[in-house]
Structure formats: structure tokens, C-alpha cells
Design brief:
Layout lengths: L1 E12 L5 E3 L5 H5 L7 E10 L8 E2 L5 E6 L4 H4 L1
Parallel strand pairs: 1-3, 3-5
Antiparallel strand pairs: 1-2, 2-4
């Protein structure tokens, strides 16, 4: 069974497809759902980045994937 979770939290993605976060909403947070579900898909705002800060944490991984939404900000970009 799969679960899809939506969040307005913003993430960064590198060219290799890895998704990164500056907070605790990283892979260990999402992998908790794997105790009940086979796969987790996170729908979130994801912005492309060439590099991520060393303090960022990896968010995707084994059975956790992201469905990126455009990272608009404010009503004019919407």
C-alpha cells in the first residue's frame, strides 16, 4: 500500500534528483510512514539547486520519493 503526503514545506533538489532539507523533515521523518505503508510519496514545493549547504539533510531514499511542485513565492509568481 502506498501513501501520498502533501506539505507546503520547501525543499531543494540537485541535478541527480536528490531532495534536500534544512530541517528535520528529512528521510528519517518520512521513513516513519514505512512502518505502515510500502511506499511514501511527498508532494511539496521543490526548487532546483546546483549545490546545497553542508548542513542540509537528504530527504528522499529507499521507498520515499518526491513529486515536485513549482516553488512560487507570493501572489505575483503564482
Amino acid at each position: 500500500m502506498r501513501v501520498t503526503v502533501t506539505t507546503e514545506f520547501r525543499y531543494l533538489a540537485t541535478a541527480d534528483g536528490a531532495v534536500w532539507s534544512p530541517s528535520s523533515l528529512a528521510y528519517p521523518f518520512w521513513s516513519r510512514y514505512l512502518a505502515v505503508f510500502d511506499q511514501v510519496r511527498v508532494v511539496a514545493r521543490v526548487q532546483s539547486a546546483t549545490r546545497v549547504p553542508a548542513t542540509y539533510l537528504r530527504c528522499d531514499g529507499d521507498r520515499v520519493s518526491f513529486a515536485p511542485l513549482p516553488p512560487y513565492q507570493g501572489p505575483f509568481q503564482y
